[in-house]
Amino acid sequence: MATKRFMTLPRHILEGEKLHPGATGELSAILNQLGLAAKVISLEVNKAGLVDILGFTGETNYSGDQVKKLDIFAHEMLVKAMDHGGHFCVMASEEEEDIIHLPPHHKIGKYVLLFDPLDGSSNIDANVSIGTIFSIYRRVSEGNGPGTLEDCLQPGYKQVAAGYVVYGSSTVLVYTAGHGVFGFTLDPSFGEFLLSHDNIKIPKRGRIYSINEGNYNSWDRGLKNYIKYLQANKFEGKPYQARYIGSMVADIHRTLLYGGIFMYPGDARNPKGKLRLMYECNPMAFIVESAGGRATDGKKRILEIQPTALHQRTPIFIGSEEDVLLVEKFMREAELSNIEK
Length: 341
Ligand code: AHM
Ligand code: MG
Prior knowledge:
The chain folds into two domains: 4-197, 2-Layer Sandwich (Fructose-1,6-Bisphosphatase, Chain A, domain 1); 208-340, D-Maltodextrin-Binding Protein, domain 2, CATH 3.40.190. 31% of the residues lie in helices and 23% in strands.
């Protein structure tokens, strides 16, 4: 690998490819193209406060959320940027109910792309960080024709690459192809992603917990006990800290860098929680596991859940290994004592 200084995203991908002699360069081309789409979305996000782009379009997306113009822009940008390279056989987006077929005149490839074009979009008006999340699989359906729903509904452990872009105080792209997690910061002066976070490793344990505590009354007893435990105890001599941005990409980016845990549990009102397995939880779980962390639904590894629907939701507990193991223990104990009663 060349030195970290001025290591651009394309160059980093190229160097990584050299370490895998069998690589065809296709995955590299995909990641480069995603980087390009991220730059365009980043520019538009930065302009959001200046142009008349904020506000609801009056539509709701498939999951029932209100859709803002920037969501649509990001969705269309990703489709347009990714549909003509000849790499994909099918795509799916959180913003579209069904799978997205490639235009008929384009070459069909062997990969599958799933993405959440602009996660956390309810935060746009308040200038809070938002992000794009993507996930790449190999096709599993037979033949060279258009991909199918079956290609999209693969368990997360089959991902070949995943990443996110956080549009925050700066724009940062983080990706993994299963061998290390790398972060690149967009230099706005010459429009290039530069390696800023080399081989990210999540701390084994952290001091920050991240959860929407407004839902406390609907939580299970085990989770309540865990949060009470954190509030009453210290880690390395200091009290635990609660941090919740309400934007998954930003909350997980912080968790990856500083350690700790991010949770979106199921509760009495929403047993499956809020976050989507295919667009949010699987890619984030792949990244966090590749950085040495852990991601489960409270019992089972996120990456081993067999999906049955494109837009299905799952509870998620993700972050430093020891923190996730601890919340699982609290939940298991509460469940056991319920059975014994
Ligand atoms: P979205 O896909 O509609 O943007 O919703 C997902 C977002 C996540 O970024 C965030 O973690 C979560 O919703 C916050 O939900 P809540 O406001 O219920 O805490
Ligand atoms: Mg989302």
